[in-house]
Amino acid sequence: MAGRDPALAKVLQAHGPPPLLRRPASLGTLVQIILEQQVSVESAKATYLRFREACGTPIRPDAIVRLDVPGLRQLGFSRQKARYTLALAHDCLEKRFRIQSLSRMNDEAVREQIVARLGLGHWSADVFLMTALLRPDVLPVGDLGLIKGIEEIDQTEYATPQAVIERARSWRPLRSIATRMVWQWYVHGRGRDIF
């Protein structure tokens, strides 16, 4: 990647290879992704740790249903994220959504399955594809860290998702790795750890 893109070469020189960011392909990971929507990673992590302690591991849908919205709210979930998490648990219990089957699907089929769930959109699907299924060519154009990071690295503005897609064309077929490099740049610039 760095050999094809001088901006990524700068990231590699400054920070070394990006971390893998591997998560299990599980219900718990999807709940963690719900919690990470539009909040800091640190805040989401604190809530997720309380949630995991309340549910036990592995996180099972029946444990979430027992907590219900009030229990999730007590753990720090917003009302909306509690609703999304409970709906996801019901989808799993009622076999409308089978997380274990996602690894056998292509990227587009995985996206379709995930975005069909309440509160899970393309960003959530992309993060799951990258971190839980380790798909190599995912570009989460809705990710603020990716957009702000590449704008900082390139010292230019990318006003539309299409502009980001065009910018990342040379990263194919390893856009997931390039994205992790940009995230690495972005979080280090703010004195934080990546995930």
From TrEMBL:
Every HhH-GPD domain range: 35-191
Q: Which UniProt keywords apply?
A: DNA damage, DNA repair
What are the GO BP annotations of this UniProt entry? Answer: base-excision repair, AP site formation; DNA alkylation repair
What is an example of a Pfam family matching this protein?
HhH-GPD
Catalyzed reaction equations: Hydrolysis of alkylated DNA, releasing 3-methyladenine, 3-methylguanine, 7-methylguanine and 7-methyladenine
Tell me which positions the record assigns to the signal sequence. Answer: none
* CDD domains reported in the protein's UniProt record: ENDO3c
Name a single GO cellular component. cytoplasm
Q: What are this entry's molecular-function GO terms?
A: alkylated DNA binding; DNA-3-methyladenine glycosylase activity; DNA-7-methylguanine glycosylase activity
- For this protein, the Enzyme Commission number is 3.2.2.21
List the InterPro entries hit by this protein, alphabetically.
Alkylbase_DNA_Glycosylase/TA, DNA_glycosylase, HhH-GPD_domain
Q: List the protein's name.
A: DNA-3-methyladenine glycosylase II
